Amino acid sequence: MTIHDLPAKWRIYEQSLQKKGGAVFCLVKRSDGEKALYVQGESPFSRGEPFANGNLYWLTPQTAFDLAQVFSWLAPQCIPAERPSFGFGDRLGLATPGHIRAVRGTSAFPVFAQQSVRENSRTGRTFAEVLASAIFGTFQEGYNGGFGADADHLKRVEDALEAAEIGYTFFTCDPSEHVVRVEKMGDEELRQRFSALDWADEWRQEYLNRPFPIAKLGELRFTEDTLFRAALKYGAAIEFADRMYRGLTERLSQRFDYEVSVDETDFPTSPLEHLFVVRELHRREVEFVSLAPRFVGAMEKGVHWQGDLDQFERELHAHAAIARSLGSYRLSLHSGSDKFTLYPLLAEETNGLWHVKTAGTSYLVALEVIARNDPSFFREIMHLSLSAFASDKQSYQISADPARIPPLHSVSDDDLTQLVAKHDSRQVLHIGFGSVLSELGDKLNEILASHEQEHYACLARHLARHLQGLEVNNE
Ligand SMILES: [Zn+2]
């Protein structure tokens, strides 16, 4: 396969070269950083600009979806049932090649286009653009191992249907707005509100005065108190998860992956509550591949997990035993970025059947590359993240205190990468992505484009650490 006669300012991504029919396909990059798809010979696509001995196509979502029609491995797929899966969120739309270099050769199945509606609105991207970046990144690396696409933290059925229309295969239902805070509710109010639920009588009959045997855990039993709390806390959330699932099954003729996630709620999901939620989803015939409980401890964004590790291990053991005993779904750990102490436990307790989601950690890797290559621009990013902190932090679980961050002028250029590493500044940078991308996004992309291989190498190294912690073998 050879490409001949490209103008001097264009170079080819060698890994992307593919032949099909009478045409050769590859990704090309112009000296100013602009990328395009080049098809030499007989192109299957109708549009395109005449270029060299073929046609050039700009990297629009339409080009991505056309390309995925030609090469089926570029279309998102469902997660193979027996493999662990890892979500690589990419807020910049530039990280997929680095993610591929981390996951290639491991047993983990990658989920690339993993972004929530909240992330998309903060980064000014659409579901289609996010998926297109993942497709082009996959094509650039010539990676034909398959990947999923996750419309993450869906809070509205319409959003799920929009993502379904575009080709997403993994739908994360987030019913957290329907989760009721029962933790501080008194007995009387609890009893009254439970009795008012449509299913109160059925639930009493179904759950009280009987054991629920769970292999490798023992017998679980509900008391009135634990049943009332579980039912009131998650009852409406289960209804919502059911509604979204019905919407998707009506819209999609093909199989899809469905996750129910309550990780972004205030109080942990107890093993009994987990049992209740899953049994109720099963009764409604909601088929889901993964469940994200709210785990104990501080699952903060972008930093190590904080809490009582023994307690985490005990609860994880119970959650994993319930998941194994009730059916074929995996436990999902969100905000997985840099939770290195939890990974070996998750891998072991779930017998390697887990799903982990990360996103912010890849953005932080990009900032590290910026700090090394353009210190003054990195200072601008830090400054902007700090000034946006008060409003950006609203919807996140974090503990950063900007007062503990040294004044920027006192940090030397060589030490700027330390700001990406240290807890307080790392979190401030982590949640500032929306403000930074909307004001400084173009320049940030430009710098990363001119240090493209370094960016990929750093991503591959950092995400490989995650995968090693999860004990997926790199063959
Ligand atoms: Zn989450």
Structure description:
This protein is α/β, with parallel strands linked by helices and 475 residues long. It folds into three domains: 49 residues, no CATH class; 261 residues, Alpha-Beta Barrel (TIM Barrel), CATH 3.20.20; 104 residues, no CATH class. The chain contains 17 helices and 16 strands. The longest helix is centred in the middle third of the chain and has 28 residues. The chain starts with 9 loop residues before the first strand and ends in a 6-residue tail after the last helix. The relative contact order is 0.11. Zinc ion (ZN) binds next to loops.
Summarize the structure.
With 475 residues, the protein is of the alpha/beta class. It has three domains: 10-58, no CATH class; 73-181 and 209-360, Aldolase class I (TIM Barrel); 361-464, no CATH class.
Q: β content, as a range?
A: 15-25%
Mean pLDDT: 95
Look at the helices and sheets and give the structural class.
Answer: alpha/beta
Cα(first) to Cα(last) distance is: 28 Å
Query: Total strand count, please?
Result: 16
Give Rg in angstroms: 24 Å
- Amount of helix: 40-55%
List segments where confidence is low: pLDDT < 50 over at least 5 consecutive residues: none
CATH superfamily of the largest domain: Aldolase class I
Largest sheet: 8 strands, parallel, barrel
Shape field? globular
- Kindly identify the CATH topology of the largest domain: TIM Barrel
Number of helices, counting only DSSP H or I runs of 4 residues or more: 17
List ligands, each type once: zinc ion
Strand order in the largest sheet: 7-8-9-10-13-14-15-16
**CATH hierarchy class name of the largest domain:** Alpha Beta
- What is the correct CATH architecture of the largest domain? Alpha-Beta Barrel
How many structural domains?
Answer: 3
